[in-house]
Structures are given as C-alpha cells and as structure tokens.
Write a structure and sequence with these properties.
alpha+beta, six-stranded mixed sheet, 24% strand, extended
Amino acid sequence: MEFLVAELQQSRIPFFLIDYEGNTSDTEQYRDALPDIISMIREGSWMIVDNGGASGDILDSIVRSGNKYLTRVRLNRSDEKRISECGDEWECIEDGVCCLKHTFDHSGRTIYLYFSVDNWRSLYLSTERSVNRMLSAIRSYEDGKFRRSDFVTVKRNVLADIEVKVSMQTHFDYDDANEIHGLINEVMGSRSGIFKLESSEQLTAYDALRKYRSRATVEHLIHSLKRVMGLKPLRVWKENSIRGAMLLALLAETAISMARYEMGSVMETKEKNGVRYESESRPSTESIVRSLSHLTVTRLIVKGVRKKAHFSN
C-alpha cells in the first residue's frame, strides 16, 4: 500500500490523505488526487510537487485551475545547449549554489538550472566508491579470479545456460591518481551537481530554491504519520479498515499540527553555508505527543470544595 499526502506549506497542517495500491505509479496518484486537492485550496496558491507530478498534463491542469506550480524536472537537450552557451550568465545565490535562469516570454514559465557544490561532492564520493569497486573487479580478473557478478547481473533461467565474456578496454596504472580522477569524472558525466526546477510563473532563483526545499516538511509529516500517529503496515483485507485507519491518523495529525501552529514560536539563530539567519522554531508533533502522554492534573480541594486544577508534565 502507498499513500499520497498534502499539507499547507506555511502552517505545516495536513489536510489530505489517500491510499493507493502498492503498484500505483506516482503519476497515476497525482492525476487521481489533484482535482480533490485543488478543490480544497484557495485559487492562486502555489503547489510544490515532486518528480512524480512533473508530467505535462498534470502541470497544465494546475495552471488551468488558476493555481501555480513549482516542481523538479529532468534536464533535456535545450538545457544542455543553454549550459554550454550561457556560461557567463550563472548567478550566485548562496554559498556553494549558483543558478542559470530562463523565462519563456509567451507563458511566463521559468526554468532554473542549479549547480550545487554539495550535490557534486556527494556524487563524487559515491562515484569514487563505485569506481574503486570496478578497479577491484578488474584486478581480480587479471589475477585469474573471475566473478560474473562483478560485471553483470544475470536473471536465473533454468532453461538457459548463460556465458559472459570479458575483455579489457585499456590498461592503465591503478595507482595513478590523475587517471583514476579522470575515470571518476567520466562515470559522473559532464552535468554532475546540476539539477533543474520549473515554475509556472517567474520567481527569483533564491525564492524558487527556498520554496522547493520547504517541501522537505512533507517527509517529516510522513514520518510523524507512521511513527507518532501509528500508521504502520496494515495487515487487513477490507478497504474500509484501511481508510478508517488513515482517516484517524490524518485527524490526529491535523489536530496536533493545528495546536503546534497556535503555540508561541521561539526565534532561533541558525547558520547555513556560512550565512546566519533567524528562524521560527516550534515543537515537533512527536515531542508534543510525548509531552501529552505525561500530562498530570493536580486538583486543590479546600474544605471539600475544588478550588484549582494545575496541569503539569
């Protein structure tokens, strides 16, 4: 079973939850759920969706409904050409992140090509580990220790005998750091560290990135629904039982989220990429539920009459 959830971005209050069979694609879920979600929000709202909602017909339906979208999409040939030809138009938006932005005049649709040093570094380290495994497999092959699983994954078929032939493309010094670095760059590709966002209306490069990053709160919501509200794997046969459990989880999460939103916030000084900024902080749903589980009421009775009630945890 899978489920799709939606929340209000600023207040972080969930308002929509629906279940689907485990083999339902993200695109199918969006096509099915978006009309209901759109009917529940104010016209002109921004909708931040992940890759599953980046299909053209889904994005067009958001615009036709009078709303706006921001999503992550794949790079295409036009982007490759723009990166090659507009190298001097990159804009630095924060430490370690720069952007190449383009707006289509006839529609206002805007694309944002971001290069992130952190993303590049993370990909480089994972690729380095992969290349080291490749080198280890080649060394074993040269030493006469051939393992088929080091080179290909073969599905088992009792009706077929499968043979794998390996030949060396080139020979080089395994201890040469420059050659290994070149091999890592070849595996990574020329566009490593670059990702693309698209919006229906023009935003600044910084605002678009900040909006998209804020969707990470949905991951916190999913974690809370599973761990705090108890929406664990459901081993039941009846669909009504599944929907009943999800409805109760949504109502409980919404109630706690509304209470958290009404609580007074505390301003905290945070630092990211060398930049200090003030941010509002409120307790998580998990800490609120934990606190409520220890709630104690002390009643003061004077001459047989209850005077006060003290709440503590």
